[in-house]
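Q: Here's a chain of 276 amino acids. Please give me its 3D structure as tokens.
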Amino acid sequence: MKRIIIGLMFLLLSAQFGMAQVKLSDYKYVIVEKQFHFQNEADEYDLNRLVKFLFEKQGFDAILEGEPLPDDVKANYCLAMTSELKATGALKTKAMVILRDCDNNVVFTSEEGITKIKEFDRAYEMAIRKTFESFAEIDYYYVPSERVIAKGKDSDDSDAQKEEIVKLKAEIETLKSESEAEEQKVDEEVEKAEATVETVSNPAKMTFFAKKEASSGNYQVFDKDNKQMMVLMSSGREGLFMVKDANAVVYKEDGKWYLSENVDGQQVIKEIELQF
């Protein structure tokens, strides 16, 4: 909410700063392809839904191609950008995201995500995740643009087209008055979350043994009964591994190893003993 206030005031007071952000912020939606050029079928390996998820994670309102469109996009398709994923794979797998407006003009091009992973599905997933690191630097938020809103509408609707902007600008004062209460609420929620994490972070410490796979470079992790518990994949950073086929990571902090996973929407952190 605070970012919305800052964004609207920022646009009204000075259009000369942060041009890349302002241009992206003109658009309310991103439409994601249902099938990329390198796939044999729609959403093969769940990669298209992954791209949608990564856009939403960065604050975009993402729509998978073929899903029902919101009413405002039906009335004005120019409110949405379309995303194009370009990817190649040989010795290295590379991926790049291009965003275009309704006139097919390029609005944004991400940096290239590169990985040497050999498995087809994991290679493209990792390359896609890496290219989305470009979006983390943008801090996207939607700010209605008269140019975009008016672009796809008939002149007879010009007053209605501007209504959304007038309405959102009028909300600034309301948002200001609510911001302090909202910040207090967020602080309380953070305290609750930290307390929750603390309560689940200290169960009996489990011991695991990691064995490196010669072919992939991944680590198979076994418990003391020699039962395989997980597979660790390199993240490219020292002391940080991704858990294969799970929403979890294993990382080292202050000389100790931790397993952080998402359980029913809640972050659970456990200290573990990991022997290589």
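Q: Can you summarize the key feature?
A: Residues 144 and 165 are 6 Å apart (CA to CA).
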